[in-house]
What we know:
Rossmann fold, 10 strands, binds fructose -6-phosphate
Amino acid sequence: MQVVIVNSAQEVANLGARHCLNLITANPRAVLGLATGSTPVALYGELIELQAKGAISFEQCLSFNLDEYIGLDPRHPQSYRYFMNIQLFDHIDIDKNNTYVPDGMSDPQQSAIDYEKEIATAGGIDLQILGVGRNGHIGFNEPSSSLVSRTRIKTLTAGTIADNKRFFTVDEFQPSLAITMGIATILESKKILLLATGASKAKAVRDLVEGPLSASCPASALQMHNNTVVIIDREAASELAHSEYYQQVNLETEQLANNND
Ligand code: F6R
């Protein structure tokens, strides 16, 4: 796991976008794994700008989102399909037929099985973008999720429902169930970028980077992945015990790369 600590949320987005740019430049047919929530919005803004400038094209890319609420129609403003259209897909040249979000409306159990097959048919995910919940969830894999789980239905914790309440209007139906890629599904991605910003994520970041591998912090499963980059701002890094070491590693890796140029 590489841990990169930058000064601001905007720098997190810029660096995340650079990883996407490098991947798509090397492989224009890349399969992207995408997340919703507030964390990746600035990254999506950067990708939209890069595409507007002609630096990147998503024409041949495929994408798979991590999760979707059960019981929300894709046209519902709080559905993750709607979110992705508004925040990214409507503004880039990706073919929407190549953008997959789990189907939370028809038979969710069958949708979960189908989703796994669709990811496999696409050849797997090249780059998975993740946020992290305050309780350490990735996707909607809440604490106690099996570390070998696949795409399935999950019940959201009271804390996650409370955290996401801000997206719903008062009295609006807020689902308590979701379809989410499993932890094993996520770990099969060739590369993973986890982004976190702000002090509210500091404990989750500490647990995922330095805590024990445990279903109590589902994101700690990333310790088992051999190509994960954790990009965080100083506030999200504030509870890490070894930030100086992570910075030293990055500096030395950079120096090595420069010497080899
Ligand atoms: C969203 C998702 C969630 C979020 C997490 C953090 O698709 O899978 O795991 O990444 O809840 O959400 P924000 O970014 O809103 O703090």
